[in-house]
# Entry
Amino acid sequence: MTIAEPVYTAGGPALPQERRLVTSIPGPRSAELAARKRDAVAAGVGTTMPVYATSAGGGVVVDVDGNSLIDLGSGIAVTGVGNAHPGVVKAIAEQAERATHTCFMVTPYEGYVAVAEALNRLTPGEHAKRSALFNSGAEAVENAVKIARAHTGRQAVVAFDHAYHGRTNLTMALTAKSMPYKKGFGPFASEVYRAPVSYPFRDGGMSGPDAARAAISRIETQVGADQLAAIIIEPILGEGGFIVPAEGFLTTLARWARENGVVFIADEVQTGFARTGRMFASEHEAIVPDLVTTAKGIAGGMPLSAVTGRAEMMDAVHGGGLGGTYGGNPVACAAALAAIDAFENDGLCEAAERIGEVITRRFSEIAGSDPRVGDVRGRGAMIAVEFVKPSTGEPDAALAARVAASAHTQGVIVLTCGTFGNVIRFLPPLTIPLELLVEGIDIVATALRDAAHDAGT
Ligand SMILES: Cc1ncc(COP(=O)(O)O)c(C=O)c1O
# Structure
């Protein structure tokens, strides 16, 4: 395979861009910290990797024992511009020296307004827009629902099978998967309904418009269009397994929503900011959502989220109805402005596409000869491999877990996902040098080859 120039250009990698194991994984210092964690941190807060990080940049994370790991996870799709991106670090330092917090609702500042202007400019559609800033993806989703309800005067909200929208009460209700996100945490918010989604690998290849009509029929019969404030959907369903709905599913839904006065919310918390090779995943099918929720990649690792949408919808909320103490914190806004500059000017959409091509090509080749690879899908630097038991086509979560665990011990950070837990997902920083990416996916591919086939398959 010919490898293009390393992708990382923004200020040059501060850390050697190499996989380097100087201890077993985890090393002794990580093991010590894991013991302290067991005694100090609530057991419900899980960790994927057995190592503790000290620094990260480009395509690597360095742990407390001096191991340098290949990062194929970006802290769950956050560090698209690279960890500790030099421009982001400078912006954070400069802002932190001036003021760390005044509360935008008390004494406003320019950074918040500038981030809102940038989001209004970058999100799909040429219409007049407004933005409001928050802290987490879940908080953005909660506020998008508040805005849709205020605008329509209706209460019901529809989310989809395999959806993930967060862990707060309303977003747990919107999220589909019970374990670990919902189990034991009810009762959940009311007036949330679920519709089927287009999942080409598992719905027999139903066309996008047909799958949308099935969803619309469910909504019309079980909720009623005139009761519905909003439908919310991830353009690529992230935690649910990087499910790319068949072409025409999202456009048909968006058209139906518009015709029925229903607010169409695109949850781009995971897919936004160049991750899929476009600034927003809605752009792949030229969808213009009424409201867009963003977070994760927006601020180079600082906690910031937003709702951006049609001015008349955003402005439907009474004064003081939106906000929060920390929402749009000035340091996070400074980081976001630097990150957005990098997304726009460092070729990161192109980088995402190259990354996607490399991963897809490799695993599609493997799928040709290994029937345990049921599907390879995704867009840009958001690619997943779904594992199945060849004899039955059932999801094989154990295989995904074994492959991931083996990659971890060899110094590759890789995540699983999927409603059935049988998906390995690749979300590298868009700044990863391609040689390092290839080394990382080679290790995952070898782990798959070496993972014993399940009995009977
Ligand atoms: C699509 C989507 N929406 C919402 C969230 C929740 O974001 P946060 O964890 O920042 O609350 C996530 C997080 O993974 C997500 O992927």
